[in-house]
Design goal:
5 strands, about 140 residues, three-stranded mixed sheet, single chain, alpha+beta, elongated, GMP Synthetase, Chain A, domain 3
């Protein structure tokens, strides 16, 4: 694992890794509360149908990477990411009120295209299996 990657793990003396349960719990809490915020309280029209795919919190719990999947075309995705960036201060303030933590982590939104990629792969696999079925007839 690269050193600059934020992950809820700590390295032990023998090179063995162990999950940092506090960071993992904080990531789950951020994901849950942010989902509620996006669903009910953020009224920015640029933020359409978004889903949080993953949250990674740094070992020192000062930074959180929030991976976002946006339903729509490229312009809708860019618009949603701009809306999230503009609401970042409000989001961090609200998260600070909702999570019981000494410090609220800085939030970084990252576009996650893994859902789109998996849908594309499944589509290609269906196409290949359809072509094989036609050849066997």
């Amino acid at each position: 694992m690269p050193e600059d990657e934020i992950a809820p793990r700590i390295r032990l003396l023998g090179g063995e890794e162990m999950y940092d349960h506090r960071s993992e719990r904080l990531a789950g809490l951020i994901k849950e509360e942010l989902g509620k915020l996006l669903q009910k309280e953020i009224k920015d029209p640029r933020i359409g149908f978004v889903s949080i795919t993953k949250v990674k919190v740094s070992r020192d719990r000062s930074h959180a990477k929030v991976y976002i999947s946006v339903f729509g075309d490229k312009s809708q995705q860019e618009s949603a990411m701009e809306g999230l960036e503009s609401a970042k201060g409000f989001i961090r303030l609200e998260l600070g009120k909702r999570i019981r933590s000494r410090h609220t982590p800085e939030i970084q939104f990252i576009a996650d295209s893994s859902l789109e990629e998996s849908a594309r792969i499944f589509s290609l696999l269906d196409q290949i299996s359809g072509e094989r079925g036609e050849k066997q007839q």
